User: Fold Polyamine aminopropyltransferase from Streptomyces similanensis.
Amino acid sequence: MIEPHAPAPPRPAPPRSGPERPPARLPVRPGTGRFLVLAGVFVCAACGLVYELELVALASYLMGDSVTQASVVLSVMVFAMGIGSLGAKRLRRHAAVGFGAIEATLALVGGCSAMALYAVFAWTGAWGGLWVAGPRCLLVAFSLAIGLLIGAEVPLLMELIQRIRRQDAGGAVADLFAADYVGALVGGLAFPFLLLPLLGQLTGALLTGAVNVLAGGTLVLGLFRRDLTPRGRRLLLAANLAVLGLLAAAAAGVGAFEQAARQAVYGDGVRVALRTGVQEIVLTGGTGGRPLDLFLDGRLRVGGQDERRYHEALVRPAMTGPHARVLILGGGDGLAAREVLLHPGVERVDVVELDPAVVRLARTDPALTRLNGHVYDDRRVRVRTADAFARLRTMEPAAYDVVIADLPDPGITASTKLYSREFYDLARRALAPGGRLAVHAGPVASRPGVFWTVEATIRAAGLRTAPYRVDGRGSPFAAGPDRATGARSAPGDWGFVLAARTPPRLALDPRAARPRTLTPAALAADARAAARTRISGLPPSTLVHPRYAG
Assistant:
């Protein structure tokens, strides 16, 4: 029995995770020093997440299929963070200099990753399979390297915090992770809302690298400089200045680099190149007898050599029935509207385009306005800037006689909802009795599975279909890479599906101006050619279960 006034037995000392290190010799009070370390954690975490998002965004733009690219980056990076954290245990005895060296390396690798990835994409396109393999290998390499370096930060920061003031491990971890996660939140919001729209991917990544190296270098050289030898301080300062110089030089040359890379991808005839909040728009040709090409995110959407054949095949068969009221989903370039207005009896054409910059170019660019016949000067044509899916949801039933879906390829991840059963349910509701739906469904010869999945999805929405395909003359859509498939030369045909509540008949309106590229006999042959590729039994694509390969 313990006496009432006997001293309590001593508590056992908390276990140590390693050999005791002497307290850090700080130029400030421990409380201030601890705050500065947590502030450094905040900044470095924000930079790390920006690198991660920048890799995902650029890889999705260059290689398509954002789901696959995000999965590759995130899984490789998280795996590498674990390996980096284990490897950093050997550096804990030299935590300050180790952290400084890691931040300088991370700033250089992360800051230059976007430029390196874009350079490999632009200048290896002529090497066949390397068009996708080169950037994808580099993507994995950068994800691995950045993940290793980010993972190595945590043990070293924990050691630095503990050397300032010893506390229980749980409290130190809580403080460290709180600063880390809040920094990640700020970086995650800054990337899409500030860095990307204001600076772009390349300059944004370089600026992030500069912030990273300044934060890491200031923390180590300012707060823990007494833990470094004079030689160590000189080397770390030189390394930080060298990284800053390289990042600054790269930032100064971004404009020339982008121009050279763009020419490597699109050729030397680039007239307009701009990045909007939706996509990158590039116009080439259109002068000096060269055909006009319009690229959206690297995919050729309008090829002056073959666009008439494409748009006639998309629009003309849908206009054989009632067509007073026409809805065009996509088609902000005005070329589908041009074909619609060639038919007598059209009273109203509504164009729903996501990117207003495409419409501005279609109104103002001389070559593009010549190609679309100045359709936006026609009072019957009205434009609404909106997402096609959202617009269909708010539309009155039976509002249109014809609905034309001139949308990006179904193999692009961002477009899969526009080729879902739910989308076609909404399109069917928007059709008046006797109305028709025309859908661009991607190439048939190279991706029959995607084409027939579109057709099966339309049928699942309660519509009857008439699928057909047309060949492109020359090399349709081949002036640039097809990032949905990874091939430099795009497919040589287009697939379409005409749909209605009753079985539609492929024909041409005899009252309209005669098409330049189509005849009724050719349409019938095109339908037979498509039928020979039919794949039966494919399930429809839905919002929760998309079935289009990216």
User: Anything to note?
Assistant: The mean pLDDT is 86. Residues 217 and 237 are 7 Å apart (CA to CA).
